Amino acid sequence: MANTDIALKEAMLIEGALGVALVDYNSGLALGSAGGGRELDLGAAAAGNTDVVRAKLRTMEMLGLEGAIEDILITLTGQYHIIRPLTGRSGQGLFLYLALDRQRANLAMARRKLHLIEQDLEV
């Protein structure tokens, strides 16, 4: 089992990673982050992506959809953004947010590696 710091460092090893954060979607606060910088404000990204997760959960409820969100993918012209809600009991209300450089990243591999990191993360 990996702790938050180890999980964030592992996520930054994903090819093309620009920044990663573990976010509480009840408060919108990043509980931990790595990477980022002037071009990627992870605090602002955490708060903004909290709204995305909440909106999707509300929509699923309105539609009566069963199951859970595996991940949410946002594609920009120069980046991929992956939002992955944690599924373990200790991760209730949390999600991993990963921003990738679209030119350097392999999206399928990044999703797979983020899934493995999420499985091993103990919060």
Observed structural traits:
123 residues, alpha+beta, five-stranded antiparallel beta sheet, 5 strands, globular
Task: Briefly summarize what is shown.
The protein is an alpha+beta fold and 123 residues long. It is built from three helices and five strands.
Characterization of the model:
The chain has 123 residues and is an alpha+beta fold. The chain is built from three helices and five strands, in the order αββαβββα. The chain has helices at residues 4-12, 42-63, 107-120, and strands spanning 17-24, 29-35, 72-75, 79-85, 94-101. It has a five-stranded antiparallel β-sheet, sandwiched between helices. A hairpin with a 4-residue loop joins strand 1 and strand 2 (29-35). The longest helix is centred in the middle third of the chain and has 22 residues, at 42-63. It is globular. The chain starts with a helix and ends with a helix. The model has no long low-confidence stretch (mean pLDDT 92).
